[in-house]
Amino acid sequence: MSVMSAQGKQIREEEATELIRPRPSHHLLAIKVENKFGVLSRVAGLFARRGFNIVSLAVAPTEDERFSRISIVVDAESAPLEQVVSQLNKLINVVEIKQLHPDDAIEAELLLATLKIDKAVPPPLKEAIIKYKANILEQSDSFVTVSCAAAPTKLDELENLLQSYSIVALHRTGQIALPKLEFLGK
Questions:
Q1: Which phi and psi (to 5°) does residue 118 adopt?
Q2: 122 pLDDT band (50/70/90 cuts)?
Q3: Which of 7, 78, 118, 162 is paired with 57 by a 20 to 30 Å CA distance?
Q4: Residue ranges, CATH 3.30.70.260, the chain
């Protein structure tokens, strides 16, 4: 059971210690880099040389064409955060590094899946498409291609559900994230 301390922070009653957010199993880093040839290769190479396991990597230009944003999800067990940030800071083209705690970020990923069907989309699949706010991109008598953009945990659920159908192809883009609005100025 938890109660509030005099300072308004949650504490465990039996221990009288402040509650600490659970340590994420992954580090989610948003890295702003100069939009120049070879930068992604140097960043990925840094992770490879250090033996850091990249779970997901996505890169795209930002609102300012001079910069790109790299979203990297790194396995927390393979890479101490301080070491990752220290190594990234040594790269000349890195402009800014932010670690985003899952509670403080809006995370999204895209899933595309082509499924074999018999003439029509089965009602349970239609229900899943509605439930997960997915879209049918293309449909024929034999196949349907579905897309869904959502938080990675929601896509995990959807992917598990799709396993009960005949999956022809399935692809996920990798995770991207931005700070929640309340954390923008911090």
A1: -105, 95
A2: very high
A3: 162
A4: 26-99
Q: Of the candidates 40, 41, 33, which has an alpha carbon nearest to the alpha carbon of residue 69?
A: 33
Range(s) within the chain of domains with CATH label 3.30.70.1150:
106-178
Both tokens of 176, joined, read 């991207």
CA 91/CA 36 separation, integer angstroms:
13
Q: How far apart are CA 5 and CA 11, in angstroms?
A: 6
Please report where in the chains the tokens 């979203």 appear, as a residue.
71
C-beta of residue 127 within 8 angstroms of C-beta of residue 109: no
Say if residues 168 and 143 touch (Cβ distance below 8 Å): yes
Instruction: State the Cα–Cα distance between residues 26 and 109, nearest whole angstrom.
Output: 15
Q: What architecture is domain 106-178?
A: 2-Layer Sandwich (3.30)
Q: What is the CATH number of domain 26-99?
A: 3.30.70.260
Taking 3-state DSSP, the helix, strand and coil percentages for the chain, each rounded to the nearest 5, stand at 25, 40, 35
**Tokens matching residue 97:** 């590094």
Residues linked to residue 33 through DSSP beta bridges, in sequence order: 68, 94
For 41-86, the pLDDT digits (tens) are 999 998 888 888 888 899 999 999 999 999 998 887 776 888 888 8
